[in-house]
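QA checklist item 7 of 12: single-chain prediction sanity check.
[x] sequence parsed
[x] length recorded as 850
[x] structure emitted
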Amino acid sequence: MTRSRHLALAALVVSFPLLASCAGMGTVARSSPSASAVAKGPATTSTSGGASNLSACVPGSHTEPLWSYSGFKMVGATTGWDIGQCALSARPSFPNGLTIQCYWPDAEFAGILRTQDGGRTWIDVSPPSLPNRSFQHSEFFLDAQHAWVGEVTRNADACVTAVTTFSTSDGGQTWHRGGVIAVKSESPTSGLFDVFGPADGMDFIDPLHGWMLLTSSAANPDPDSMSDPTSLYSTTDGGQHWKVVANNPGKSLLGAASGCPTAFYAPVSDAVFTSRTSGWFAIQCPPTTLVLRTEDGGASWSAKPLPCSCQVYVPKYFDAEHAVITGTQGSKAMLSTADGGATWAQHAVPAAAMTYFSFIDPNDGWMVGIEQLPRSYDTVIYRTTDGGQSWSQVGKPGFATSTSSPNLYFPIQALQFVDANTGFVMLGAEAGAQGSQGVTDPTAPQLQLLSTSDGGRSWTAVVRQIPAVTCSANYNNQLGFGNGPVWPEEMASSTVGWARGGFRTTDGGVHWREVSSPALREGASTPRYPTGYSDFYLDGNHAWQVGVYGSKTSCTDHVTTFATADGGKTWQKSSPIVLSLPAGYAPQNLQLGFTSAQTGWLWVPSGQSNQDPMSFRATEADVYSTSDGGATWQHVSRLGQPELGPTPPSSDQNCQPGFGRIEYLSPTVGWLSPVCGDSPMLGTRDGGVTWKGATFPIPSSAGCPCYLQTMKFTDPSHGIVVFSGQSGLTGSTVVLSTSDGGSSWQSLPQPGTGFLLQLSFVNPNDLIALVTPPGWTKVSKGGLELYRSTDGGHTWAMVSSDVPATWPPGFMQFVDLNHGFESNINGADQFLATSDGGKTWRSITPAIVS
């Protein structure tokens, strides 16, 4: 499954208008089974007390990293399964080219690993890789011998076309190809198995009877809700054939949830069955979580809401009557039921900053936590024998807090007990945030597997995966949430423009050439970019690039910028900007901008270093300025919790404060958009030395607290901001304008009646807006509406009712009143251009040339 997107999708629930509608996922296509022997790779071995080096990522070798979050499953004291990175063939290619571009990660956990010695060595036992296989997949491990994998394939016109299942009954020595489920997604760019919550995508109760949950994220959602299309399939012959059991199971039950839009639907757990008829499934419409029950194999479902809005979202189902639900990030409660979910009991759990739970039956469970002390951390283990009613401390083994600094810890990423004595715990890379001194150790293990044979009193390191090249992983080829050929950022004229990554066009977007500084990637192969990479394009000739770089002691100890004044022919490298970050913090998502060829600013946000880059949340930020075109930089200020405002109440844990976008209008005036902050925007009028929250005339009907959807300025005085309420519902959008640099704001009418998607200033008076038509949903046919204002947004006139923009639009810019450009947020596989002010559009297929 697309695990790298999980947290990003979770963040979308509160960060963007909640979008989607639902449809069936496809029909079953039968195929004859065929056995295929799998090629075996070398073992993932442990050396020197469990240490193994992580150098190049080689499928099937001892350097193949283990996946810790969901694939890890021990089925006994010695035998277990896990997911391995890089056990995947080359990305799909098609002789006649592609009509769409699909998200493709730099590296993905997609191979099947197996151990027979308690995790000390792992063998790659992956099934055959199908032609044009995607990186997305599902899997289930029943016992030491039986396992299933669902491989997703695509074609030139869609990112998902089918799921093919493979099964093994001999521990992965041979795999049998089973049934094929044809998938017709709601959008060609939709993925599969990429929804936050469901982890495996499959469940089997014996070698014959199983279920598969096809979940697809709302890539092209409806503005009124977030609906994840979900279909449940079942098999009675071990995966040789599949039939659909239910679409969006339990969706009708969400309608009774308070404040939940009727179209909203989000699965938050796997469908787990305890017999051929009895099963469990959890769905959510925040803050309401419903645990569903079925007694007919999944055809129909019943539910009752949980008794609290506490952070419990990790269910463990034992049989038709018993289940427990626990949390991870310091949740202070757990729930249990002994009557099939009719009633739930709430139990207090020991306090800790980070917690993981494992239950082997309804009564016996363990908690491993990281305790936050005044100046350090400690590892603590508790056990319950009465289903969570009481807990006793087992010990403080210290394995998660034996770090290079007392301000750091190894985050817990998996915990599993297989019986009353035998258990396993996985730890991630060194992280932490206490104090303001110290950095993470780049030579520390990136992953550790430990085991216990005495119920958690003592632990032994089984595997310690150590990076051989400390900072090599900092380079990646991901410039966004997809892999379109180009990501347009600035069109300087009707012919000259720039795209993210240092790509430049001189023929209106038909051909693009990368002109990045050779020093940007320090000898790494192209196209790869350093941590925190960002760029800024002022005009057709002036551009800047920035990245985070490391040394022998830290992978993120300085920032370097690169500047060109001749369209990328030559570049000038800046002096290093030395970083001083809190312990356990790392920079990400840098931004830079220039108000002239000489005057600019640099924004270096930082946050917990163990975060997924796709969902990174910055809680600290440094502002730098330059007056010599980026040759040297001066530190201006550091922003932190005082600027963000108070932490939201525990009832709003989905919304955590962080720093978002920043934009300078002049050397002194700038605006910053916090995420879930006390104010929707912060402003500075002294070049970033001080920041103050701004007040906006936002009506109560918007459903605030609000988030900033759009911030556009055409000069230091004139700009427009668009806010949306957290509900994301129709009527929650507010459009405001300023003509005095933000000292005062006036309400503007919204163009059209749909959702405002893109704005482009031509000058302070002339604006262009891209809007959804009335009644639009993501499955609607036809184009989008284009409006123009000639008085700064006070009145609007429709230009076109059928702009053939691909959804979701991510870029629109008019360089003058006639010439404009538009592209998809997932990269421009089709670049639209107009030369008559938006009345008509022509499609361009951009090509990257050397």
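[x] summary fact logged: The mean pLDDT is 78.
[ ] second reviewer sign-off
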